Amino acid sequence: MGTEIGYADEYDNADRRRGVLWIRVPVKPGAGAPLPGRVHALRQRQAINHLLCRGCGKPTAGGRPDRRHLFLVASEAGQPLAEGEKTTTPPVCDGCALEAVLEGPSPRAGYVAALVAYTSPWGVVGIVYSPDTLEPLPGDNGHKLSFVAYDDPRLRWTLACREVVSVHGCTAVDLENLTGRTAA
Ligand SMILES: [Zn+2]
After folding, report:
1. Which domain of life is it from (predicted)?
2. Mean of the pLDDT values across residues 148-173?
3. What is the Cα Rg of the chain in Å?
4. How far does the centroid of ligand 1 lie from the alpha carbon of residue 96, in Å?
């Protein structure tokens, strides 16, 4: 029995990041195109690690004097992003945020926005396999996927699908201000 999961034909650079095995996804051309509804694992990882807009792929702090990053995340409860909160949602530039907010069926429902000073790597979301049976274990709260921190011993048995960061230096942004500010 092995000590971790891996691919039979594994390429270290392509398949692992920070020692974690990543799900294989087709590398599609047209990297500048908007992300589809089902987030592409590689695009998500690159966007959240390099703080690139999830809509257009441009750096999100570029045009902002305070160099902070706008995060626009789904929140059923409407709770603002808290200090140290974990997210898999990459940041977004003002233009793409405005589009996302205005295009929604009920524009302001279900989103919260915050300006974030910096992010820290936290872990991954992925499928955890049993070291004994090599079968996938049930995920968090009845889902298939689990949040697994970088210091979690289960990490060696996890097939990562999303990068997770924690957000720091958060200031909540009123979505009314967002639309006003970006439209101006
Ligand atoms: Zn954008």
Report:
1. Bacteria
2. 96
3. 18
4. 4
Cα–ligand 1 centroid distance for 52 (angstroms)? 8
Q: How far is the CA of 34 from the centre of ligand 1 (A)?
A: 9
Is the pLDDT assigned to residue 33 strictly greater than 50?
no
Q: What type of residue sits at position 114?
A: A
Distance 128 CA to ligand 1 centre (A): 33
Considering only CA atoms, which of 90, 83, 91 is closest in space to residue 167?
Answer: 83
Please state, in angstroms and rounded to a whole number, the distance separating the CA atoms of residues 162 and 89. 9
**Average pLDDT of the segment spanning 180-184:** 49
Give the tokens for residue 155: 């990490």
Position with higher pLDDT, 44 vs 100: 44
Q: Are 138 and 71 in contact (CB under 8 A)?
A: no
pLDDT of residue 28: 59
> From CA 54, how far away is CA 171, in angstroms rounded?
20
Spatial separation of the C-alpha atoms in residues 36 and 131, rounded to whole Å: 34
pLDDT of residue 111: 83
Q: How far is the CA of 117 from the centre of ligand 1 (A)?
A: 18
Task: State in Å: Cα 27 to ligand 1 middle.
Answer: 21
